[in-house]
Every structure is written in structure tokens, then in C-alpha cells.
């Protein structure tokens, strides 16, 4: 049975975005991390399980070594991998990956932006951890970027780009029990309502494509 616990006030209101609440429970430390996006800021709260202690942190979307350039954040999500947990933040400029407590940015991937403005918006949206140490992130071009994440350190690499979708990625999601019998473990969706079903690995395999309604 669920019951209401003590409410925690965040620093800003929540932007009207998909999936705008991230939660990560850290059992050994009896802590829970929460994230909520507001404009160009990720509001992060670390709360003890008894509700007596909590702390705030704010993360901005900006390129490394650039003090003032910020952009709207599209999503923030925790990715739980076999050997580490990361907080992934996507925006109109790129993709940032932090240690799960938000203390250190371990990776930055800039999006390709045209030199002159176009009608097509540029952004990254749709974040999911996938078995075997991968993180998948969708982008506005319809591509899905597959990042290979080591067990520690910042040597994260872009290992593959999946280009089956023709419209902006809405979301990606992964689910697998960990069994070797798991055939499909990633689903991606675009703004046209199309779904793609994938199997992860050294090379991701497209297993099925479900068209959206005409």
C-alpha cells in the first residue's frame, strides 16, 4: 500500500516536458536522488529515506569551458548500468553525462547545429540505459546515438548511430530481465508515431518497425 510521505520543495517549477521527473534510490546510503527540469536548469535534490535531511543542487546546460552559453534542457534521466549510475541531461546544444550525484560532468557530446537558422529545431530527447553498458539518446534528426560507457572514468565513446527513424525521436525505453533469452530490449518512438524495436549488442539489430497511424 502506498502512503504519502513528507513533501520536498524544489527550487523552481517544473517545465511541461515529457518524463520530467527522475528518481534514483541509493540503498547503501539510504538516499534518493530526484531531478526536475526547469527551462535551462536541472533541479536536483538528495533526500534521506527518513525525510529529515535533504540538499539541493542545480545543473545548467552549457558547453564545457563556456561560462555564459546556456540552452533549454529537454530531459534529465538517471541511467542505471551494471557497474555505475549516471545522470544524463539533453538539451538544444548537446548531451551531458554526470556522476549520479551531479557533482562531476564526465562526458559532453555536442549536437551538429547549422551555421544559419533553419525551420528544423535541433535537440536531443529520449534517454535510456541498455544492457551491456550502453546509453541510447535520441535526437531531432530521428537518429539514435549509442554510447559505450566504461565501468569507470570518462572514456565514453559514441559507438553507433541508428538511423531508422525519419522524424524527431520522442522517447526511447529499455526493459530486460538480464536473461540471455531476452531478444528485444529497446524500443524507440518518433513524433510521427512510429516505433522501432531493437536488440542491443556490439551492433544493434532492428527487429521490427511498427508504423504510426496515417
Automatic annotation (TrEMBL):
InterPro entries membership: WD40/YVTN_repeat-like_dom_sf (IPR015943), WDR54_beta_prop (IPR049546)
Gene3D superfamilies according to UniProt: YVTN repeat-like/Quinoprotein amine dehydrogenase (2.130.10.10)
Pfam families: WDR54
Residues of the WD repeat-containing protein 54 beta-propeller domain: 1-213
Source organism, top-level taxon: Eukaryota
Protein's name in the database: WD repeat domain 54
Organism of origin: Nothobranchius pienaari
Gene encoding the protein: WDR54
Amino acid at each position: 500500500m502506498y502512503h504519502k510521505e513528507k513533501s520536498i520543495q524544489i527550487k523552481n517549477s517544473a517545465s511541461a516536458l515529457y518524463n520530467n521527473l527522475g528518481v534514483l534510490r541509493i540503498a547503501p546510503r539510504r538516499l534518493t536522488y530526484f531531478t526536475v527540469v526547469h527551462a535551462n536548469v536541472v533541479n536536483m535534490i538528495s533526500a534521506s529515506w527518513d525525510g529529515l535531511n535533504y540538499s539541493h543542487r542545480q545543473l545548467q546546460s552549457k558547453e564545457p569551458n563556456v561560462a555564459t552559453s546556456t540552452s533549454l534542457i529537454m530531459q534529465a534521466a538517471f541511467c542505471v548500468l551494471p557497474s555505475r549510475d549516471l545522470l544524463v541531461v539533453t538539451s538544444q546544444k548537446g548531451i551531458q553525462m554526470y556522476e549520479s550525484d551531479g557533482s562531476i560532468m564526465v562526458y559532453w557530446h555536442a549536437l551538429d547545429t547549422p551555421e544559419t537558422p533553419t525551420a528544423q529545431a535541433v535537440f536531443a530527447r529520449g534517454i535510456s540505459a541498455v544492457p551491456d553498458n550502453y546509453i541510447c539518446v535520441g535526437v531531432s534528426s530521428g537518429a539514435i546515438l549509442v554510447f559505450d560507457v566504461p565501468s569507470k572514468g570518462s572514456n565514453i565513446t559514441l559507438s553507433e548511430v541508428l538511423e531508422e527513424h525519419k522524424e524527431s525521436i520522442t522517447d526511447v525505453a529499455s526493459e530486460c530481465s538480464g536473461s540471455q533469452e531476452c531478444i528485444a530490449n529497446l524500443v524507440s518512438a518518433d513524433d510521427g508515431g512510429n516505433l522501432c524495436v531493437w536488440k542491443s549488442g556490439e551492433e544493434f539489430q532492428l527487429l521490427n518497425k511498427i508504423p504510426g497511424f496515417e
